[in-house]
Structure formats: C-alpha cells, structure tokens
Amino acid sequence: MAKSQFIEIPDLDSIPDIEGWAQQQANIRAQQEGLSKEEVMQQMAESSETAVDLDNLPKPDHNWIDRGLKMSCEGANHPNHSHYKVSR
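Above: the chain's sequence. Below: its structure in token form.
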C-alpha cells in the first residue's frame, strides 16, 4: 500500500497540552484581574523584551513611486508592496 503524502492533523482535544494551555490562560487572567491596561503593559515590559501594545501601533509611512502601470511603496518602515493602476 502506498504511503499517504499528507500529514495527519491530530484532534486538538486529544492533545494533553491543550489542558495545560487553558490552565495557563486562567492563571494569567487571575494575575491581571483588577489591574489597569497600563499596569499590565508595565508587567509585560519587565518580563519580556518584546512587549507591544497592539491597540496603539504606529501608522506606517508610505513612499509611493510611480512605476508606469503600477505604484510601488519602497524604502518605507514596512515591507515593499505595490498596486496596479486601474482606470474606471
């Protein structure tokens, strides 16, 4: 019989670590209960070097360059991206 080329994805409920993850989430919620957002961010900044406030991300700067049929954003503070011009 030929071996399947696909990887079997296990049922997430059968993975024992899922219960540990749920317990860890409950512990974090219990620790942060009653704290303000600023206090939680301060705790995260002390325990991790990469704490980011996703509610206040900086707006990306765009550097649009005309490339004929498309415009491309290059050399900005985010990955390059482009869009084709459409006349409607």
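The first strand starts at residue 64 and ends at 66.
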